[in-house]
Amino acid sequence: MSRLATLVLRITWATRQHNVRLAIAANVFVNAGILILYLLNLIFTQRILRATHPKIGWHAILSITFKVFYAAIGAALAMVITAAIIGAYTLNTSTLEKVRDVQLAAITFLLIFVTLPLVLLALAHFLPHSSDEEHFGQGSMTKKKVIVLLVACLLITIAGFKAGTAWMPPHPITKPAWYHSKASFYIFNFALEITVLFILTLSRPDKGFHVPNGSKGPGDYTRLSISAGPEITREEREMYGVDKV
Q: What does the DSSP 8-state code read for residue 177?
């Protein structure tokens, strides 16, 4: 839905190139649509860490840190939108410099945010195995880790391209750099996003990364799955030692 809206706005903008409001809306949607994937991959990684190392994954400090990062994503989006609007309606050099600083800060934060799943995945994989390790969803933990890793690498490529091009010095309009081309824009944005969506769709994250409702602490993934009775799958009942009902 987000990307359909983005492309519709870009097509409309192409037919009304002097409409500033359309230009702002199209550019905002280009940057905002990807945030959903950033958040999803971090949530999936958080569930892996909570399952493999419950005491660490469910620790209050880490939970608060996640909430702060989620709020910061919204703040970064608000910064980008505000800066885009101000920059589109001013020619003041000082104001434009401040707008650029805000945009660089926001896009750099997003790059840092999108690397967090790799850090958490490394903790989940390399820390000594916990005796309280749990299982959730369908499929092996290795499969879940591979999915998160692939998605994280693709999202880092997208965020890295945006951050890298943003930090590059301005180029004359008559001599654009390679990353200003249409091919670069569509490959490093929409093509990679489509690849991520294919990976997630084919891997069925609604089943593989599903956790029981009401999970609030260590042991809930197992305890609430068992109490769900008929709602859990046969594989899960065998895994937890629950008789078939």
A: -
